């Protein structure tokens, strides 16, 4: 049949596309080199397939695929119908690729770094296709092509997810086992990708035992992480296969380390979120009667003879009275000593006022930059942190600079052995971003953006400053960029706010902006 196709060289299809050179094909299909006239003359490939009973559906599907644009997908330029040697044919004109992976494998297998370079663009394209409701359906070395030093997947075999398709060709190892009787799903692409990965590293796909329901045996000689990817992709049960996002995470060591860090979280020994007990209450055991109340003696015989002890009080009276005395002292002492502390504080404030007017109390306690062990954030982040610090300090009432030290002075004078809380313990402090991680979007994916892709991620931060949970607040138009933003947000580090001298959980809204020049992040604390 190839001889028949070679004889077609030189023919002109629809008075527009001359068949310049036969590139290859099968008995039913063929690919030729042709040339586009508009908008500029350049090489293209034209492929012919038989026009069967579903020809109109295939034409409609190709028209929808022409609307897809991704840097790792071959572009479809034109489609149509024609007759060659008295047989109806469908044709699709697509972007021309200089070579494909099947031309390299007979000579040598790919190295580990080359396999990774092959997988990354393929995974990017599959994430894009699956998000739009399509599967590739024919991932194999001959459909992974190179054009202008860029790897791309063929586009003419795309098929809607959830629909069944009858194969007009012979079933091979790259086809997922369930596709013979079940609708196509993203798991079918994962199987094909796993088989292709094994073939690129060993020069042959895994062997399938006829009639066996066991998983294919993946060679142990495959290096990691490709061995894990292949074993989890080549599961006969599609429900047990890894998803495309899980494969991408396994190939990214940083993501694996972040997941391991979350599995052994410092929260296994969490800090207490219960507010500190006031120092006044801690002094109750110092009362003379407290030791007798804390350790009640066993019942005595005379306890059953109340007439002999007319002045004996019930057991609860003494602790109640002690508690009332403590409360009265706590309320009265600040008022009694307040005049002295107010006057001294006012004098101190008046003395300092001419030199430090913006915020005499808050400014020395502010921390403009992250601690030394943490990597410094970008300049834009530092500026935003400074702006946020000034914004938060502005609404503070000036009177707090005088009134806050008063309770601390009372507690310190009354109970010298207790640890007096700082002046900020009466109100929650604001948290800070210690380390922000930007999404690792590929340059090819960023090149597809027109304008700005906005994704909002809401994170819940535990008292240690680690992200305990991250959810999409506004996913935006692209699932690909939403997943990248979600993974990046989980790796952020924060300086948790404090309430009553203890670090407490907080909540942040991180807005990621993806542009062709790269991603940016805008964090905002929403609680407390």
Structure description:
- With 528 residues, the protein is of the alpha+beta class.
- The protein has 16 helices and 20 strands.
- It has helices at 2-6, 55-65, 112-131, 186-202, 226-233, 244-251, 253-263, 279-282, 290-294, 317-352, 362-365, 379-393, 400-403, 405-414, 443-446, 479-489, and strands at residues 12-13, 17-18, 21-25, 30-36, 42-50, 76-84, 87-95, 99-100, 134-135, 144-147, 150-153, 159-160, 432-435, 453-461, 467-474, 493-495, 498-499, 502-503, 506-515, 518-527.
- The strands form seven sheets. A five-stranded antiparallel β-sheet has the order 3-4-5-7-6. A four-stranded antiparallel β-sheet has the order 15-14-19-20, covered by helices on one side. Strands 8-10-11 form a three-stranded antiparallel β-sheet, with helices on one face.
- The model is unreliable at 264-299, 301-311 and 339-426 (pLDDT under 50).
Helices and strands in order:
Elements: H1 2-6, E1 12-13, E2 17-18, E3 21-25, E4 30-36, E5 42-50, H2 55-65, E6 76-84, E7 87-95, E8 99-100, H3 112-131, E9 134-135, E10 144-147, E11 150-153, E12 159-160, H4 186-202, H5 226-233, H6 244-251, H7 253-263, H8 279-282, H9 290-294, H10 317-352, H11 362-365, H12 379-393, H13 400-403, H14 405-414, E13 432-435, H15 443-446, E14 453-461, E15 467-474, H16 479-489, E16 493-495, E17 498-499, E18 502-503, E19 506-515, E20 518-527
Antiparallel strand pairs: 1-2, 3-4, 4-5, 5-7, 6-7, 8-10, 9-12, 10-11, 13-16, 14-15, 14-19, 17-18, 19-20
Helix pairs in contact: 3-4, 3-6, 4-5, 10-14
